[in-house]
Amino acid sequence: MEENTSFLQEEADALISQGKFDDVITLLNDEELEVLNNAELYLLKGNAWYNKSVYNNAIVNYTKAIKINPRYELAFYNRGQVWIAIKKYAEAIKDFDKVIEFNPNYTNIYVSRASAWKIMEVYDKAIIDYTKAIEVDPNDPNAYYYRGLTKKENNIDMKGSKEDFEKYLKLITDESDIGYKYAKFYVKRFDEINDKKLSVIVDLISKIKEILLLDEECITHYTSLSVLKSLLLDCSKFRISEGNFLNDSSEGLEFYKFLNNNTTVKGYNGSFVESYSPKPFIGSFVAKDKYDDLNMWRLYGKELGEEAKGCAITLRMEKFKEDIKNVLSNEKNIEARLDDESDINFYQIAYLTQESNIFYIPNSDKKSQKLTNLMTKLREKVKLYKGNNTTSLDEYLNSIAFLFKSDNYKNENEVRLVLKGIEFEKEYNMIENSPKVYIELVCIKNVVSQITFGPKVDKLSEWKTAFYYRYCHEEEMPKIEISHLPYR
Fold first, then answer.
1. What mean pLDDT is reported for the chain?
2. In sequence order, what are the beta bridge partners of 313?
3. Which pLDDT value is given to residue 8?
4. Is the pTM of this model over 0.85?
5. What pLDDT does 434 receive?
6. Ramachandran region of residue 163, left (φ > 0), alpha (ψ -120 to 50) or beta?
7. Cross-strand pairs, 443
8. Domains in the chain and their CATH numbers?
9. How far apart are CA 174 and CA 183, in angstroms?
């Protein structure tokens, strides 16, 4: 029996290392495990279920391992990780307590328990556990990172928080690691806090974004039928491009012309960037009531360059935002996200009247006046800025530069999604012999409320049939509209 147990352990270990979790579950069948009554085998089977995200089965097997060996540290630790995955944090803490009872120096246990405390918002206990983890292993980078994060998020010992991030950066050698990027970001932000003049500018930018924040149920995106097929029938992810690659080379320039700032913004075929900083990633939409608009069909609702042969996809805005946020979170990874990346919102475009330097927000004279006042103050503060954080200044200005256009476009009533894009993998394709950078968000199949076909689209019955079978149930289908505008 011992030989059979050893053989199964070796086989299961090898299969898990190859990611063959179904094979592990088949190998370690319930009948044989009951006969062998071996805690290690139940642990391995629990690991396989955990990696398949079948958490209830993982818990069953870890519990059986614990029943056989009530002091099995790894089984308690792994079951605690499952409790975290299903958001039962109090149960996780109980299992982590057991591990510490058996072995106070168990690797990673204090960081794991601290993370559970952090999610439960028991921050003092979280900090105590992160500190204990550092005492056990002074070179554990995660303990420094998460302790710094906990302090920062709750405005506790901000100097110590910065020191924790700096220590983390010394311990991490892989600069491509996402945690390394976060820590550098936070250290940089701490340095900015002491720059009072920059802080005033940042506050003005926040107020400007608050005014432009869109409060609607739906937004509409014009595109081609080939993209419609890709997004809904093939369930490809919705793409948005980095600001340098928008089709209009004047993008962002209206904002900088108003500021009369030396910084320039590079459009798709734009000018050299004198002070380069990464631009946000931009998604272009229009207000819901523009879903059937002659000008939109002419400019954006095209197929292979032919006007009015495209479509308008109307999306439920809050559901779209929720799906983007969900893709950024991983139930197995409870680390906090960057502050800037949490700003997943849609903003109205403001239109600038050149002659009078007055900003116009569609359907809101009161907001327009308030925005004009804030923008005037921003211009004054930017002109007077003589601090050392010019790169940070550029980044903050770029975060809103693409929310302003000339009043020549005011009838478009455009809406934009603006993302920093830090947590998304950057993709590239070639357009006219130059690379174009974009990120992929989420599949939008389940956030579409309506599809409007352009006035020159033919074979509509085929499209309707395809969507009927794609959505399976008629009540789940988006509403299908056909434009009857007199397009010439």
1. 87
2. 221, 451
3. 83
4. no
5. 76
6. alpha
7. 237
8. 2-189 (1.25.40.10), 197-482 (no CATH)
9. 12
